[in-house]
Amino acid sequence: MPEVKHIKIGEDKFKITEEEIARRELKVTKIGDEVIQVQEEVHGIIAVVGAVSSVNIKKDELKELIKVVKEEFGWTDIC
Hints:
Elements: E1 6-15, E2 21-32, E3 35-43, H1 59-71
Antiparallel strand pairs: 1-2, 2-3
């Protein structure tokens, strides 16, 4: 079984309260030859999990995502 490689393409911190800072990481993982997974992890706050999921991605993170899928995952037809 091939090793699963998670590649971090972005991170930042933001203030929740005077005392608490949350940390966010955005990672991409190759699931198969035609499928990737973009995962956003937020640490430091309590979140309610629902049926809807979304990932916030910044412009520079999108550029990094495109670079990673080309260079690391071999997707040559991404522009």
